Amino acid sequence: MEKTSKIKGLVYGILSSSTFGLIPLFAVPAMNAGVGINSVIFYRFGISALVMSIWMLLSRQDMKVTFKELVTISFLGLFYGMTACMLTSSYQYIPSGIATTIHFLYPVVVTAIMVLFFKDKVSVMLVMAILLAISGVYMLSSGDGTGSISMKGLLLVLSTVVTYALYIVGVNKSCVSKMDGLKLTFYVLLVGAVVFAFNLLVRGEALDIPQDWKTASDLVLLALVPTVISDFTLIKAVQNVGSTTTAVLGCMEPLTAVVMGVLFLQESFDWMQGIGIAVILIAVTMVIIANSRASSKK
Questions:
Q1: Which tens digits make up the pLDDT trace of 165-217?
Q2: pLDDT digits (tens, 9 = 90+) for 227-254
Q3: What is the distance, to the nearest Å, from the Cα of residue 92 to the centroid of all Cα atoms in its chain?
Q4: Which residues in 175-270 belong to E strands, given as ranges?
Q5: pTM for this one?
Q6: H-type helices in the chain, by residue range?
Q7: Backbone CA torsion sign across 54, 45, 177, 293
């Protein structure tokens, strides 16, 4: 049973980071089509929360939460929402590939939190996988070119490193760690939708309406693929294999972003990025082996 849970967790982790890496594919075209950043993020959380609520009502899922769980979920939703807002905003100031590369520093923060505050033991192989993954992600960003980096964009994406790490650790170590994945996903997305609706009201901004079906479909896909699917599988991964392993598996995110960029956005691809992909795949394999050994010992 333990081994089956580990395998599920690894699959969930890879699926989560892979779908999360599709954010630029849907968000950037919508912003280029004239939909403001605050509207894009509201659509992302609003549509996803609506879809989740319909699904849960039709399948008659239990939606009850205690006050303590609601407070915890509110903080988790805030961390997740802040990550989404700042990461998407950073695309306006620095290339999405570089932003994704910097964002991937979050496994280091997750590992540090788990070791310092929760006394987690990290194997040598897992540490090597973290270093390899970061190296691979750096190589993937080689095609973005060089030049001055916007300090505002840099600060925005560096902030996501902390907020996303806190979200992952919170899912694993808070009172909602055993909550049904669908229920937790719904409430996290609902909190995000409420926060960004309030954000629009406070700013006095009108909700931008997409002017064509292509933009509308991008917003719907943004809500479904790198939000509903990604967040649900992330929660299931954390519940099955823990925060640190799930964070390391996040290296699939920039890999997906590069592949989608080459296939659909006519972005360049060179030999250094090819090596980066190989290094990331090796890192993921090491994580799988490390978990397999841990399960065998147990």
A1: 999 999 999 999 999 999 999 999 999 999 999 999 999 999 999 999 999 99
A2: 999 999 999 999 998 888 888 888 787 7
A3: 19
A4: none
A5: 0.83
A6: 2-20, 23-32, 37-58, 67-90, 96-103, 106-118, 124-140, 151-173, 181-203, 213-223, 230-241, 243-248, 252-264, 271-297
A7: positive
Token pair belonging to 118: 């929760």
Closest by CA position to 90, among listed 184, 177, 153:
153
Distance CA 3, CA 39 (A): 43
* Look-up of token digits 């970061």: 134
The torsion angles phi and psi of 23, rounded to 5 degrees, stand at -55, -50
Among residues 8, 89, 11, 17, which one has the least CA distance to residue 257? 17
- In the DSSP assignment, the letter for residue 227 is I
Token pair belonging to 273: 């990025």
105 phi/psi in degrees, rounded to 5? -70, -10
What type of residue sits at position 202?
A: V
